[in-house]
């Protein structure tokens, strides 16, 4: 099962990962927040601007922590976590 939108194949390189128990593929290194947006998962990201692919525009002290998700059992910021092979994401 592809995690991308139907009819829009992912360019290479892609990596295999699991989101909420669904196995699929995503772009290696893309922000996890972007992948979750593409999947239609409702994870808020108040300070993250996808056009810039970074919260660094605001600086670390101003991060909002609204995008926390569990990756491999640990809470991480989806906006600051690059997608990598084998990661297990739970919302
Ligand atoms: S969107 Fe604010 S820390 Fe991730």
Give a written overview of the molecule.
With 91 residues, the chain is mostly beta strands. It has a single domain (14-90), classed as Roll (Ubiquitin-like (UB roll)), CATH 3.10.20.740. Helix content is 9%, strand content 25%. It has one helix spanning 32-39; strands spanning 14-19, 22-27, 68-71, 74-77, 88-90. It has a 5-stranded mixed beta sheet, with no helix packed on it. It is globular and about 30 Å long. Bound molecules: FE2/S2 (inorganic) cluster.
Summarize the structure.
With 91 residues, the protein is mostly beta strands.
What's the CATH topology name? Ubiquitin-like (UB roll)
- What strand order characterises the main sheet? 2-1-5-3-4
| Cα end-to-end separation | 19 Å
Strand content: 25-35%
Bound small molecules, by name, code or SMILES, are:
FE2/S2 (inorganic) cluster
Low-confidence stretches: none
Q: Mean pLDDT score, rounded?
A: 83
The CATH class designation is Alpha Beta
What's the main sheet like?
A: 5 strands, mixed
The chain-level structural class is: mainly beta
Into which percent range does the helicity of residues fall?
under 10%
Please state the second-level CATH architecture: Roll
> Compute the gyration radius: what is it?
13 Å
Shape designation: globular
- Total E-strand runs: 5
Count, helices: 1
Along the chain, the helix and strand elements come as EEHEEE
Overall number of domains: 1
């Amino acid at each position: 099962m592809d995690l991308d939108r139907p009819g829009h194949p992912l360019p290479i390189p892609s990596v295999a990962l699991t989101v909420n128990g669904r196995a699929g593929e995503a772009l290696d290194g893309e922000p996890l927040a972007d992948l979750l947006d593409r999947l239609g998962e409702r994870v808020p990201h108040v300070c993250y601007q996808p056009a810039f692919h970074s919260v660094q525009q605001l600086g670390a002290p101003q991060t909002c922590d609204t995008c926390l998700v569990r990756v491999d059992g640990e809470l991480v910021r989806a906006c600051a976590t690059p997608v990598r092979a084998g990661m297990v994401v739970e919302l």
